[in-house]
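Regression test case RT-17, inverse folding.

Input:
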């Protein structure tokens, strides 16, 4: 039966030819008469990397069982359709945490590997793929490969960050991080402009496990790039346990228009930047620290029927301040400020993933309501800036980068093509590579 699949930005969709919903990890799927295959995780990618028109879609969410948990050494093996939230529910009470987590816990293990996701601790520990010990990869020929650094290493490094194009990850084994309890000790620091951000980052990134900054995209002039810098660390034994707050907030319907526009943004940014801040560390549960947006169910519907884009790029440290300033000036000039504008530096620990996005440099992630050509025109300008700076756009967030930008940002593309499965393909792949 065919089915319509959406991604998180709700601009892209795809209709499948056939859906597989495997419930047994040992049973092969019948790919014999199928030309185009893609695995769908939980659709938390923003653009078209998780979509494939007229394809047979492996809906991985039913394969969500724990296989083995070594509580002594913190090694967990699960089926790849399990979500990070389901993993955290099991491991946190036993004193373990995910070594790397993105900004939502509603992604699957397979999706986290396929996009080699990064978190607030990239500068210190690298990306998700750095903590993958091994996995089983099923090819369209139904050959199954156990992949690790020691076994089928070429497939291991092609699949980490491989955008789901080397085959279907059936299960994976990951290394966890020991923690004392679910609490986080967090701090926040206001910065008045980009120069202050870079000065703060030099001081704070070296001594903090987790760092990230929110910036006010509408600010300009001497205030260009002002924002708030957040740091965090897992708390020690002595701290009082904080319970997560149950959230009942949600967007039940698709609004006809976006609630996020330049007027609501101006108010939000002003209030957020000027909110009362504690100068002392604040203790909080890990959920609001790592996953603030998960508190509002279906928050993507705030952008209305037309959906929204996310634009995330990384550029090398050289000239980063000037390049980020140029990007912000273009956005501020067009009054197209982003509700979510997240600035972070990335470190030099790589997972080895051939197509991994995370690399040393500065990354900026921005959300934009879909305003048609006006938004695309802005992206074309930003693309040129990123290209000239030697940067790359993140496929997990992308819906319109050019083939040239993909090729230039991902120099291992030719090596990757040799390991790509001939039947696995996505709308993203056909858009940027043309096959
Ligand atoms: C609120 C929010 C915050 C986010 N924050 C971050 C962040 O901080 N850092 C970051 O890096 N990303 C972030 N993301 C992006 C998100 O982490 C990635 O897009 C992630 O890959 C989505 O996982 P998914 O399970 O939903 O997979 P999908 O979006 O469904 O698929 C993603 C890719 O994985 C492939 N795939 C999925 N399962 C398998 C499998 N079993 N075998 C082979 N391939 C598979 C798909 O084919 C596709 O190419 C965020 C997304 C949201 C919505």
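Golden output:
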């Amino acid at each position: 039966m065919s089915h319509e699949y959406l991604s998180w930005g709700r601009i892209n969709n795809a209709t499948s030819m056939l859906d597989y919903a495997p419930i047994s990890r040992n049973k092969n799927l019948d790919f014999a008469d199928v030309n185009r295959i893609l695995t769908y995780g939980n659709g938390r990618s923003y653009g078209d990397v998780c979509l494939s028109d007229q394809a047979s879609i492996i809906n991985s969410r039913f394969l969500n069982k724990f296989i083995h948990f070594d509580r002594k050494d913190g090694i967990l093996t699960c089926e790849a359709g399990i979500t990070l939230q389901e993993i955290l529910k099991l491991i946190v009470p036993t004193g373990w945490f995910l070594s790397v987590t993105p900004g939502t816990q509603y992604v699957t293990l397979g999706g986290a590997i396929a996009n080699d996701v990064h978190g607030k601790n990239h500068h210190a520990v690298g990306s998700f793929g750095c903590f993958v010990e091994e996995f089983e990869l099923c090819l369209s020929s139904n050959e199954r490969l156990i992949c690790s650094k020691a076994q089928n290493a070429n497939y291991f490094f092609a699949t980490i960050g491989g955008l789901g194009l080397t085959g279907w990850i059936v299960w994976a084994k990951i290394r966890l991080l020991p923690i004392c309890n679910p609490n986080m000790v967090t701090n926040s620091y206001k910065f008045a402009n980009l120069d202050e951000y870079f000065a703060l980052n030099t001081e704070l990134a070296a001594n903090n496990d987790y760092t990230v900054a929110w910036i006010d995209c509408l600010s300009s002039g001497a205030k260009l790039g002002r924002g708030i810098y957040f740091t965090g660390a897992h708390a020690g034994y002595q701290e009082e346990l904080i319970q997560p707050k149950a959230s009942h907030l949600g967007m039940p319907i698709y609004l006809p228009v976006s609630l996020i526009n330049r007027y609501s943004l101006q108010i939000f940014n002003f209030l957020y930047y000027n909110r009362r801040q504690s100068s002392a560390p604040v203790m909080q549960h890990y959920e609001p620290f790592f996953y603030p947006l998960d508190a509002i169910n279906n928050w993507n519907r705030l952008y209305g029927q037309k959906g929204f884009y996310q634009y995330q790029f990384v550029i090398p440290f050289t000239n980063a301040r000037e390049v980020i300033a140029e990007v912000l000036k273009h956005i501020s000039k067009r009054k197209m400020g982003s509700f979510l504008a997240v600035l972070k530096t990335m470190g030099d620990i790589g997972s080895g993933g051939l197509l991994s996005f995370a690399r040393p440099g500065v990354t900026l992630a921005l959300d934009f309501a879909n305003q048609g050509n006006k938004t695309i025109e802005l992206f074309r300008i930003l693309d040129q800036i990123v290209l000239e700076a030697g940067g790359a756009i993140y496929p997990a967030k992308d819906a319109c980068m050019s083939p040239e930008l993909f090729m230039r940002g991902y120099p291992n593309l030719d090596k990757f093509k040799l390991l790509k499965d001939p039947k696995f393909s996505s709308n993203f792949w056909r858009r940027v590579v043309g096959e």
